[in-house]
Amino acid sequence: MARYIGPKSRIARRFGEPIFGADKVLSRRNFPPGQHGNSRRRKTSEYGVMLAEKQKAKYTYGVLERQFRNMFEKAARAEGITGEVLLQNLESRLDNIVFRLGIAPTRAAARQLVGHKHITVDGQVVNIPSYSVKPGQIVAVREKSKSLEVIEAALAGFNHSKYPWLEWDANIMGGKYLHKPDRADIPENIKEQLIVELYSK
């Protein structure tokens, strides 16, 4: 199962945003990594700006290049605004929904929980992080995994009303995916139109 396993603080510093969650290194060194990171840098080209936005989206959702391109092509064929559809599809990934429900503290941790068969969709164990959850489906913690310390710690004090497209049910330790989120409700700082322009070149 391919995934990025390199230094996360370095990536966060490149974009100047805590895209993997709270980052102590970024708060101390809020400038790009490398020998000349804190010195004046040349102005980024228009292409460079669009490329950086695509890279930021990839790292944020933990998707590699080929997978991301396939998701874009799927979004381009669908009805609606391509950039918004792309983000909605990324938000519909099982690992992302596990993260949004508060079952895991990060998307990487959510991916691991899914891969280790701790998560069910409509009562059936699903161990594919990229599985696309459909509106109406219920994502929950597997019965024998409910006492896992990492899950209990993540859920402690989590605000389950943050995302209007998800409905939490504490009794099943899971939630229902009500509908695809509106763009205004997705909190990620991603300029999806730049990604569309990049792939349109």
What does this structure look like?
It is a single chain. The chain is an alpha+beta fold. 42% of the residues lie in helices and 8% in strands. It is built from nine helices and five strands; from the N terminus they run αααααααβββαββα. It has a five-stranded antiparallel β-sheet, covered by helices on one side. Helix 4 packs across helix 5. The longest helix is centred in the first third of the chain and has 16 residues. The chain is globular. The relative contact order is 0.14.
Short description:
With 201 residues, this protein is an alpha+beta fold. The longest helix has 16 residues.
Brief descriptors of the model:
five-stranded antiparallel sheet; globular; alpha+beta; 201 residues; 9 helices; 42% helix
